[in-house]
Design brief:
The complex is a heterodimer of chains A (244) and B (284). With 244 residues, chain A is of the alpha+beta class. Chain A is built from five helices and 14 strands. Chain A is elongated, with a radius of gyration of 20 Å. The termini of chain B are far apart. The model of chain B has no long low-confidence stretch (mean pLDDT 95). The chains are: A alpha+beta (244), B mainly beta (284).
């Protein structure tokens, strides 16, 4: 697939931003991730941090860039040079979610507003194979694409001051998991007993942009069993290679 | 070697120059708010510039040294005593076992940096000692904390006394900014207003962001969630200007109209509620 060339501009003296037209599109995502890898391969001697969002790459040079326009033209040339597209490796994850009323504080609200039965909501939420576009907002918070239109619902009028760790919610067209206790305005439909961000791991999150994620409904009893396994360190995250 | 925190102060934390490589996990950079003052503090005790230091905000802590150490305090002005005797900032200071340092109040500027020869050896998470909850256990020091300090060979205070802190850097109210990615979506009239108006720092100012008091009419559409950095100026649909700081989120959905220079970040973080600021546009 062909993509337009991005706008390349500095963002301060330490970073360069590459932006494509605003679009939430999986093909664009994989295009960005390939370029990201290409840029990371090029800068092996200097420390460079590259992050992506839906339609941007931010190349952060961490210290002041000596010649910004020189660096921009390096990036322009990189865009045009041939890239190996075999090197990217993605994973398919499955995470358990308990949709019990205990956690699904807004299931009734969603059911009423969108005229869906609770079991229908669970079915619609566990059906898609979501795409992880990037992590942002909070440490470990995944921006997921693929929520069924029937589940779109506006945020709560006033946000909750405390949303539990692991809470699964919906805000407008997005669904996600709260990685930690925080304030939050999303409509809550369940809870995931598996921590998705652990600061004590060298890689604090197993998920990366481009990976796929499915939710699997579990009952309260299974939820507690998984919670125990997580505590004891015996829980095995469901993960397999994913061919894009 | 260690330092005992007998009173934590309003918002006191250990900070180094922050986390890099973890933005992909949504982890904020964190690190000292005023990098210039922190660097000078480190140099005054003979450390490398980037050692972890104590960041003190407005009302400071009381500390008890458990060993002989060399320390330095850098900031604009503050009421500080060592064993109840007034001491001056910006000078390396030899302290002894049992000495009590009381940082009562920052009287000019907002933040003060305490460096200790050898550096702090506090909790390290994701390659940094910068305190930020929940990456570290707490975002600020507590009364019971005992802070570990690296061992070092005894050094004399005067050896590092030649380092100069340029306090005049903090006088201006002009913040130098580069145009942000959405700057050119602004109507010309609004651009003009943004660059001539005097703004003031609101009470909503923290390690995450500084919000300005004055509002301007904003007709820009919200954007898709995009990368942001410390120093990014966001323009909200309600017309507020929010200047992101060291603990800012890694992504945001408000138009990014300016990007502060590093020097201007250092300048802004020493301003307090009510202080006036203006934007001065700079080309790359």
């Amino acid at each position: 697939m062909k993509f337009e060339k991005p706008t390349i501009q500095p963002l301060g003296k330490q970073a360069i931003l590459l932006s494509w037209e605003e679009n939430i599109d999986e093909n664009l995502l994989y295009h960005l991730l390939q370029l990201k890898k290409h840029i990371q391969h090029y800068y092996t001697k200097v420390k460079v941090e590259v992050i992506n969002t839906y339609n941007s790459l931010l190349v952060n040079y961490v210290s002041t860039i000596k010649n910004i326009y020189g660096e921009i033209s390096v990036l322009e040339k990189l865009m045009d040079s041939p890239q190996k597209d075999t090197a990217l490796q993605f994973y398919q994850f499955t995470l358990p979610v308990c949709y019990d009323q205990k956690f699904g504080l807004d299931l009734e609200e969603l059911s009423k507003q969108n005229q869906l039965g609770i079991s229908e909501i669970i079915q619609l939420h566990t059906q898609p194979n979501y795409t992880i576009f990037f992590t942002g907002f909070l440490p470990g918070f995944l921006y997921l694409g693929g929520l069924d239109k029937k589940l779109h619902i506006s945020r709560k009028k006033s946000p909750r001051l405390k949303v539990e760790k692991g809470a699964v919610g919906i805000g407008e067209k997005q669904t996600g998991i709260y990685p930690q206790i925080s304030a939050g305005g999303w409509q809550l439909i369940g809870n995931c007993p598996v921590p998705i961000f652990d600061v004590n791991q060298e890689k604090p999150s197993p998920f990366q942009a481009g990976d796929k994620l499915k939710f699997e409904a579990v009952n309260l009893e299974d939820y507690e069993t998984i919670q125990q396994e997580v505590k004891q360190g015996t829980y095995q995250l469901k993960k397999e290679m994913y061919e894009h | 070697m260690s330092i005992k925190v007998t009173k934590p102060g309003l918002l006191t934390s250990i900070q180094d120059f922050g986390r890099t490589g973890y933005a992909q996990y949504g982890v904020p950079q964190s690190g000292v708010m005023d990098r210039y003052a922190a660097k000078i503090a480190n140099l005054l005790v003979g450390n490398t510039e980037y050692e972890a230091v104590m960041e003190i905000t407005l009302m400071g802590p009381s500390l008890e040294f458990q060993e002989e150490m060399l320390v330095a305090l850098v900031g604009l002005e503050a009421a500080v005593t060592l064993n109840d005797e007034k001491i001056r900032l910006l000078k390396p200071l030899e302290v002894n076992d049992g000495d009590v340092l009381q940082i009562k109040q920052v009287t000019k500027g907002t933040r003060l940096y305490l460096a200790v020869k050898g550096g702090f050896l506090t909790e390290e998470k994701l390659e940094s000692r910068s305190m930020y909850e929940p990456i570290t256990r707490s975002g600020q020091l507590k009364k019971v904390d005992e802070l570990k300090v690296a061992e070092y060979k005894v050094a004399k205070a005067k050896a590092f006394a030649h380092i100069k802190f340029e306090a005049e850097k903090y006088e201006p109210s002009q913040l130098e900014v580069f145009p942000g990615p959405e700057f050119n979506n602004l109507p010309e009239e609004l651009k003009g207003e943004l660059l001539t108006k005097k703004f003031s720092v609101s009470k909503d100012n923290s390690r995450m962001a500084y919000q300005l008091e004055e509002k301007l009419e904003n007709e820009l559409q919200p954007i898709l969630t995009q990368p942001v950095l410390p120093g990014t100026v966001q323009f909200t649909p309600a017309g507020n200007l929010i200047i992101l700081m060291r603990d800012a989120q890694t992504t945001g959905g408000y138009p990014r109209i300016f990007q502060l220079t590093e020097e201007s970040i250092n300048l802004l973080v020493q301003k307090k509620q009510g202080d006036s600021v203006e934007f001065q546009l700079k080309e790359y």
